[in-house]
Specification:
The structure holds 2 protein chains of 2 kinds. Chain A is an alpha/beta fold. Chain A is about 70% helix and about 10% strand. The relative contact order of chain A is 0.10. In chain B, strand 1 (about 50-55), helix 3 (about 60-75) and strand 2 form a beta-alpha-beta unit. Chain B is elongated. The chains are: A alpha/beta, B alpha/beta.
């Protein structure tokens, strides 16, 4: 036991001597989350709208002002020719162009159908689709108002129009602020990055510096060495996680569930990441390889776990693959505890899957570690 | 020995080291392609198959027709039928549904009286982005259903009177990506992201490794000058990065069918310029960092993260606060993103893209000058 404490102490000393690693911890956890939370949004708003109003009548101006009144469109340029409009779309000066032909109000007054042309830059398929949706709703609503006016003019009072009013309520996050999700997902990601990189880098660095041979000739068993490698990171990760809780507080992200449960399940999650880090450390021969391997394992895991894009929207094969990612479960757990305030009675399937996977990964890491050092 | 010969000697030595190290070579060539395949498949920016649950307290033909509109749209997948509000609670808590539609018992009766009927949609707001996009779909579906109801009501009430034509018709035309396929947007974006992810990292490590090993002292006492040494490091890694670009272009166009509407030669030419930027950043990092860990850290802070977050790759720059929009100009990835997407999707030429190209050129020149300045001061 004293041997083990000595080893653990050595790892702690080594950890705090190398300042870059501490910077890494602080940086990933704090700055990354702050920058992302302030500047990253998927909301498609303030699309640049260029207008060519060839009619310039009260009706056409009303249509334009209905676009301008929403926060979805910012009315910008008013190109004078269709070439100028094309140019704007091509250079990105406008994402959407609305062309109102000269006979717009005349056709409306005559009871005919007036047309309005919408040019959409489709290169970003997502914002294009959303822009199309917004526009057709704006134009549709205006058109129906005119329709009923005309009808009243023809047949007199026709009574009220039937309609479905959809009243929406978002649970857990009524204002639908993306920041809540962003903060929580970055928190989980930061935990994983630290727990994978530190053991991998530590192990590879000892290999590169040759100090691993010194450890091997000492009377330690492989599992003692491994525990000594892993325990400091484990403690540091949990401690930095506790420190990082100021970030959700700063962004007024609620923590509705139990913090104790959050830390218990975070500890469970850490084991899978530590196991992965050890595994990568045994595969790499030097620090450079270890860090590169770590990054290019973390990035695919992050992509398939729903941190960037919801898992449901991915192709089936990738959805299956994501079942193997502990980060996916950890994200669901953290969202559940922070935003929904649910407890273990709801989260146990995720916790069980995460624990099982963690055990498997840790076993493989340990096996490789033993084979290499035994 | 002339200056160029010395530069060539450094480059040859570096090339040999790269070829001798299969792990680095593998990371440089296999990982970018792997990343492209994974990202392109996984990053669909549109939300599909949102899990929907329905609590239909009315159970009429009208309510079923309204729900059918959701299922027909392809955006929602009916995953559960709730029987009570308690069920709804449970479904949202467990993530069994992201959207729950609650149709009250008087839905069809209210509609029959020609009044607006209320429906409630409950969303799981913890996935705010999914919820926001789903709300758009819900509005569109509700709008379409209302239109159908009103047309039917009109036909019933005005009887023989010919119905007036709709007042306005919107004629949408989608340019550049008419089928609205997200991979056509993601693939050229990945050129900018991946070229910024690997080459600077590898370059920075190549120089810092020599410093850690002490072999850089031999360079200091040799007649090789700072810019010759840096040039010798720059060329092999720029060549490697350009090879990466060729591979990515091949996979992107042949496997994912992404178009290149503009000139491929222009795309490759400007990507060469971009490669000098990215490798140059790697060199600059190497003059600052003392150890490999610091080099990797700095590379990630200066290249990987910003090229991912602040380039417009997934997160639209127009939606960011104004200060951050200015901040994005600090990173060349944003400008190459415009070039790559402009050439691939819009068939743009140099006459539209010259501002971005000039900025890239200035960036590359500044980074390389700064690196050679810092290196000289250190070695002098």
């Amino acid at each position: 036991m004293t041997r083990l404490t000595a080893l653990v102490r050595k790892e702690f000393l080594q950890f705090f001597r190398s300042k870059p690693l501490i910077i890494l911890v602080v940086w990933t956890i704090a700055v990354e989350i702050v920058i992302c939370a302030y500047s990253i949004t998927y909301d498609v708003k303030h699309l640049r709208l260029a207008i060519r109003d060839l009619d310039d009548s009260p009706a056409s101006r009303e249509l334009v002002s209905r676009f301008a009144r929403t926060e979805y469109f910012d009315v910008g340029a008013r190109p004078r020719s269709s070439r100028a409009l094309d140019e704007l779309l091509e250079t990105g000066g406008a994402t959407v162009g609305l062309v109102i032909p000269p006979d717009f109000s005349r056709r409306i007054d005559q009871g005919l159908t007036a047309s309005a042309q919408l040019l959409v830059d489709g290169s970003n398929s997502n914002s294009a689709l959303i822009a199309l949706g917004y526009s057709s709703r704006i134009v549709g609503a205006y058109s129906r108002e005119l329709d009923w006016q005309r009808l009243r003019a023809v047949v007199g009072d026709v009574g009220p129009a039937p309609a479905v009013r959809n009243e929406r309520r978002a649970w857990y996050n009524p204002a639908l602020r993306s920041v809540h999700f962003e903060v929580v997902s970055m928190l989980t990601l930061a935990v994983m990055m630290i727990a994978v990189i530190l053991p991998a880098a530590g192990l590879a660095w000892e290999k590169e510096a040759g100090t691993i041979e010194q450890l091997l000739v000492m009377p330690f068993r492989p599992w003692e060495l491994m525990l000594a490698k892993v325990v400091p990171t484990f403690v540091v990760s949990l401690a930095s996680l506790a420190l990082a809780l100021w970030v959700p507080w700063w962004f007024s992200v609620p923590i509705r569930g139990s913090l104790v449960l959050f830390f218990v399940l975070s500890a469970l999650f850490l084991w899978s990441s530590l196991g992965l880090g050890l595994l990568l450390g045994t595969l790499a021969e030097n620090l450079q390889q270890a860090l590169l391997l770590a990054f290019f394992t973390i990035i695919p895991v992050l992509v398939i776990s729903g941190v960037l894009v919801p898992v449901e929207s991915m192709p089936g094969a990738i959805q299956l693959l994501s079942l193997l990612s502990p980060l996916r479960y950890y994200l669901e757990i953290t969202l559940g505890i922070f935003l929904k305030g649910v407890g273990i009675e709801v989260l146990w399937p995720q916790a069980a899957a995460m624990g099982g996977l963690g055990l498997g990964i840790l076993a493989v890491g340990l096996w490789r570690f033993r084979r290499q050092l035994g | 020995m002339s200056s160029l010969a010395r530069l060539g000697a450094v480059a040859r030595k570096e090339m040999r080291e790269i070829l001798r190290d299969p792990v680095t070579l593998g990371i440089a060539i296999v990982l970018p392609v792997l990343m492209m395949v994974l990202f392109t498949y996984a990053i669909t920016l549109d939300v599909r198959e949102v899990r929907l649950a329905v609590l239909d307290e009315d159970g009429s033909a009208e309510s079923r027709e309204y729900v059918a509109g959701f299922l027909r749209s392809g955006y929602f997948r009916l995953d559960a039928v709730a029987r009570s509000l308690k069920d709804v609670d449970r479904l949202l808590d467990r993530g069994g549904a992201r959207v729950v539609l609650v149709i009250p018992a008087d839905f069809s009766r209210t509609l029959a009286q020609g009044r607006p009927a209320g429906v409630q949609t409950l969303l799981d707001g913890s996935f705010a982005n999914t919820a926001i996009i789903a709300l758009n779909y819900i509005d569109a579906i509700t709008e379409a259903y209302t239109r159908r109801l009103q047309e039917r009501a009109l036909a019933a009430r005005v009887g023989g009177v010919p119905r007036p034509a709709p007042a306005i018709r919107l004629e949408p035309r989608v340019r550049y990506n008419p089928e609205l396929r997200s991979e056509h947007y993601v693939v050229p974006g990945l050129f900018a992201v991946i070229l910024m992810a690997f080459p600077p990292l590898l370059t920075a490590l190549a120089v810092v490794r020599e410093r850690e090993r002490g072999s850089i002292l031999q360079i200091y006492i040799s007649p090789v000058r700072a810019w010759e040494f840096l040039g010798g490091k720059l060329l092999p890694y720029a060549a490697l990065a350009f090879l990466e670009m060729l591979l990515l272009l091949g996979v992107g166009t042949l496997w994912f069918g992404a178009p290149v509407h503009g000139s491929p030669a222009l795309l490759l030419g400007l990507s060469l310029l971009y490669v000098f930027c990215t490798v140059g950043i790697g060199l600059l990092v190497s003059t600052v960092a003392r150890s490999q860990v610091v080099a990797i850290l700095l590379s990630i802070v200066l290249t990987l993260m910003p090229s991912f977050l602040f380039s417009g790759f997934i997160f639209p720059i127009d939606s960011m606060p104004a200060a951050f929009q200015w901040y994005t100009h600090l990173f060349p990835a944003r400008h190459f993103m415009e070039i790559a997407r402009g050439i691939s999707l819009k068939g743009a030429g140099l006459e539209q893209l010259w501002p971005s190209a000039v900025l890239l050129l200035a960036y590359a020149a500044a980074v390389l000058a700064l690196a050679s300045l810092r290196f000289r001061r250190k070695s002098g």
